[in-house]
Design goal:
Length: 305
């Protein structure tokens, strides 16, 4: 793979297409084929995993590793594990007991096709295989693999992680919207796995938690994670189903605590811009090697789907 271009010539569309193809090919290798028994679970897993997602999390991991000079394939399999965990969370989020959604990425949700029971098992299976993929990742030391397992466990777990954020989100439907609860929900529910994505790249590049580079990428991930959720909340009230790929207006209907509900639309837009500036500032020391990270942050804030 060629080195990341300079900002003046950086082609984000080309970069996303290239890295998306690498991630897609790796996922194809890592997930059992639909014909492998028990075939129905593998069909359900692949239905959601290959539904056309943006692959933001694995590409962030790749871009973070590149920012630290690591351009080999060592980050690719761990990056795919992030996508597996993210997809499992979407399958479960869409279930009737949680967000009860019929549409995801422009087509019927997993449980609408395979039934609730198989959708639950498909999510479970994707979560399980993610940790297998990290544990078996080639080209990384035992210390690096252990650090990745810990990072993924914490980011997807109950204390400050994705599951904890989902719990706060569910409980928040019965509470008055406050800024404190809003930030507690989304730094965990959305932000933790996005922060883990760039930290995956740092760990794969040999930069563990004590390093300045790891800390800088963590700050970037926190800013991008918050910006991502702010924009998601705005899109839920401003987009069509065709643009969004899922049912808009669900947040208000389910009394979710969102950034527009707490701060208003215009203030939320300003906050997204402030987080974008913070993301750029965090990776400024990496210079041209962070061109992809800067461009991805721009895309996250200015996207329409």
């Amino acid at each position: 793979m060629s080195a990341t271009p300079t900002p003046t010539q950086f082609d984000l569309s080309g970069y996303l297409a290239l890295q998306g193809e690498r991630v897609q090919a790796a996922l194809e290798r890592l997930i059992p084929a639909e014909t492998v028994e028990p075939a129905v679970i593998h069909r359900a897993m692949r239905y959601s995993l290959f539904a056309g997602g943006k692959r933001v999390r694995p590409i962030l991991a790749i871009a973070a590793a590149e920012a630290l000079g690591e351009t080999s394939d060592v980050v690719l399999a761990p990056a795919c594990a992030l996508e597996m965990v993210h997809t499992y969370s979407l399958i479960h989020d869409d279930l009737p007991a949680l967000d009860n959604d019929d549409l995801r990425r422009g087509r019927p949700t997993n449980h609408k096709v395979f039934g609730d029971a198989m959708a639950i098992l498909a999510g479970d299976a994707l979560s399980t295989i993610a940790f297998q993929v990290v544990a078996q990742a080639e080209g990384l030391s035992v210390e690096q693999r252990l650090a990745l397992v810990e990072e993924l466990s914490v980011a997807s777990g109950t204390v400050g992680g994705m599951i904890g954020g989902q719990v706060h989100d569910l409980e928040g439907e019965k509470q008055a919207p406050t800024a404190e609860l809003l930030h507690r929900i989304h730094r965990a529910k959305t932000g933790a796995l996005l922060r883990a994505s760039v930290r995956f790249g740092a760990i794969a590049a040999g930069k563990l938690a004590a390093s300045e580079e790891h800390a800088a990428l963590s700050r970037y991930g926190e800013a991008v994670g918050l910006a991502f959720q702010i924009v998601d909340d705005l899109l839920d009230i401003e987009s069509t189903p065709e643009q969004l790929g899922k049912t808009p207006g669900k947040d208000a209907a389910q009394h979710k605590i969102t950034f527009p509900a707490v701060y208003g639309v215009e203030a939320s837009r300003r906050m997204a811009g402030e987080q974008l500036q913070a993301a750029h500032a965090a990776v400024a020391p990496f210079g041209e090697r962070a061109a992809a990270l800067r461009a991805i942050a721009d895309l996250i804030v200015h996207r329409n789907s």
